[in-house]
Amino acid sequence: MNDTQRAIEHCYAQGWTDGLPVVPCDEEALAAVLARVDRDPGEVLLAMPQINRAVTVRLAAINAVMAGCLPEYFPVVVAAWDSLDQEGYPRKGIWQSTTGTASLLLVNGPVRRELGVNSAGNLFGPGFRANATIGRAVRLTAINALGLEPHELDQATQGTPAKYTACIGENEEESPWTPLHVDCGLAPEVSAVTALTMRSTVHIEARHTNVAEQLVADVAGTLRRTGALLHRTVSACVVLCPEHAHLLADAGWSKRDVAVALHEQSFVPREELDRAGKGAVSQKSHWRVARDHPDAVVDPGPDPARDGIRTMTSPDAVLVVVAGASNSGVSAVVETFGPRGDRPPVTRIAGVAAP
To answer: What is the distance between the alpha carbons of residues 103 and 105, in angstroms, rounded to a whole number?
Structure first.
């Protein structure tokens, strides 16, 4: 066994990995990463006082090296932590939940091309160093700095493969609409990252139609499934492939039109909820429960003409972005948690030039 192999095995022995090999971090590598941001190494990026742990710039840098990041990726990693802190759910303990959540990072602006962040085919899959390692750096830091190890502080019942990494670019070049960061007030030439708390990704196979209304109805069928987590804090990131986005735009639909329609069509009749044992809501947890649950209350629906609920509480709960390849009608719905009624936590990426 050579020195490199011994260093990797030492990291395994110390519990410093996510199950995959890591890149051992030395002082030279750490200095190169820290030099890419104008932030104090001791600055706290995200704190979890309930477990007396915090992520500092230095700890984020060490884990970025270990995750395989190049130094020039680190400004994106830091912006991701800023966005996660703004989004709020990780600070409140969602990463410790049995729900089994991960962080989805959406990258916008010129940095996608500069760093090679994939926004086209297979963007949720492997093959691109920037996507793989930037997303991995966040989870690895959560394990090593916050102590969120499986079977210990991470109590996920099943978890998700996205806990390894989930970082995608928006396909701005093939989108018929303005990108997310521009919608939120930033200039097109600004680079930004948006961090969302996600559970799973469900693909929408809609190769069969060129009718906008049929496509929206197909996507809505996934949003209103009773097997999903039905809770007032649940939202969705609808990742439309360019083919679907252009189909909608050519029919005169805006992203807001899509969100409004999906909210309206997320209605689930009470009888369908009852069949799944979710016809009422817990007064304490606000989870869906059966009507005979001791804490149950039958919540009034949004429409007096029909009894039921909408899984999306408002159009603001639906975030529409464009990503993926222009080679087939396949889109995705990512189940997310908040924020609601406000813009997502879009965070400007600020770095310094290479030394």
So the answer is: 6
Q: Compute CA distances 346 → 3, 83, 180, whole Å.
A: 42, 7, 8
Cβ count within 10 A of residue 242: 22
Q: What gap in Å lies between CA 104 and CA 235, rounded to an integer? A: 13
Of 228, 196, 225, nearest to 104 by C-alpha is 196
Averaged pLDDT, 162-170: 98
Cis peptide before 300 (omega within 30 of 0): no
Residue 196, token pair as written in the block: 């969302």
pLDDT at residue 341, as a whole number: 45
Query: In terms of residues, how long is the chain?
Result: 355
Q: What does the alpha-carbon distance between residue 88 and residue 66 come to, in Å, rounded to a whole number?
A: 25
Residue 206 phi/psi, 5-degree rounding, is: -135, 65
Exposure b/e, 167-201, CB count within 10 A at least 16 = b: bbbbbbebbbbebbbbbbebeeebbbbbbbbbbbb
**How far from 229 is each of 71, 156, 258, 336, CA to CA, in Å?**
38, 14, 22, 10
pLDDT tens-digit readout, 275-297: 999 999 999 888 899 999 999 99
Distances in whole angstroms, Cα of residue 35 to Cα of each of 66, 128, 350, 351: 17, 24, 12, 9
User: pTM to 2 decimals?
Assistant: 0.95
